[in-house]
Amino acid sequence: MNSTIIYYDESTEFVSLALDQSYIIAIDSHLVSTHHIEVPKMSFSKAKKAIPFLLEDVLLDDIETLDFFLQKTANEQYYDVVVISKNIMNALRKKLETTGLKIEQCVVDFMLLPIEKGKVYCIKVEQDVLFRYGDFLGGKTSQAVLDELFTNNYQILSEKLNVKYAQKINLLNVDWSSNWKEKLYKWRASIIILLLLMVLSPVQLMLDNHNLTKKINTQSNINEIHFKKLFPEVRRIIDLYIQIKQKLSTLSIKEQLDNDLLAKIQSDIKIKTKIKRLQFNKQTLKVEQ
């Protein structure tokens, strides 16, 4: 669905607008100033703090009362800057709070013109000419002033306004709560699935735990049956693990005792010695060589 352009100045009111439409707000260029400024090499966040002070001498209002929107150029030490009064932006946000309108973007009106290096695109708007020569550079002036501003370095071309030229520029951060009904409706399927997962996950976990406990109990019963078959003298099983260890330890000792005879012979007889007779009497072993 194509977005509808709302041309905005301080007298604009958002009334009788359809809620099922999407809108792009185009702020009147007379309400802003644009600047191309060089800054020392620094990060974008530092430049955002420094630029208001660098522009302070050319601005009519106190920088504390202004909003600054920055765009880094191809040359990293230069920025294009749009400056607008905070009162204007706050008034715009306040007007939008109760409308429930779906605002896709908020731009300055000259941003609806194309942008191309070495060219100035313009369109006649009543008595003025709207022009653009950079992402954040443009404005509204008379034809005479426009001709003086751009001489041989720029080719001036006429072009119609179009929302596609605004690209992804958005000067307005619309409060999420102002459009909460529309946003919830848009994401209703995802939200329902998420809520179902939140409800069903503990239930599934309980079922998994129940099934696992059931399997463990079954295996424990099987293990006890096998243990009683191997050791029928055991009448009662209290702790199967400990009782198995005890029985294995007893079997190990018994096995060692069974091997004592061979150990005795090996210790008493030299290697390659022939044995004539072994006599075991009253716990005493006699070896005749």
Please explain how this structure is put together.
By secondary structure, this protein is α/β, with parallel strands linked by helices. The protein has three domains: 174 residues, Nucleotidyltransferase, domain 5 (2-Layer Sandwich), CATH 3.30.420; 72 residues; 31 residues, no CATH class. It is built from seven helices and twelve strands. Strands 9-8-7-10 form a four-stranded mixed β-sheet, covered by helices on one side. A three-stranded parallel β-sheet has the order 1-2-6, with no helix packed on it. Strand 8 and strand 9 form a beta hairpin. The longest helix has 43 residues. The protein starts with a strand and ends with a strand. About 4% of the residues have low confidence.
Pick out its properties.
single chain, 289 residues, alpha/beta, Nucleotidyltransferase, domain 5, 3 domains, four-stranded mixed beta sheet, three-stranded parallel beta sheet, 12 strands, 37% helix, T2SS_protein-GspL, GspL_cyto_dom, ATPase_NBD, GspL cytoplasmic actin-ATPase-like domain-containing protein
Q: What does the main sheet amount to?
A: 4 strands, mixed
Principal-axis shape equals elongated
Radius of gyration: 44 Å
What is the CATH third-level topology name of the largest domain? Answer: Nucleotidyltransferase, domain 5
What's the overall average pLDDT, rounded? Answer: 79
Percentage of β-strand residues: 25-35%
Q: Specify the structural class.
A: alpha/beta
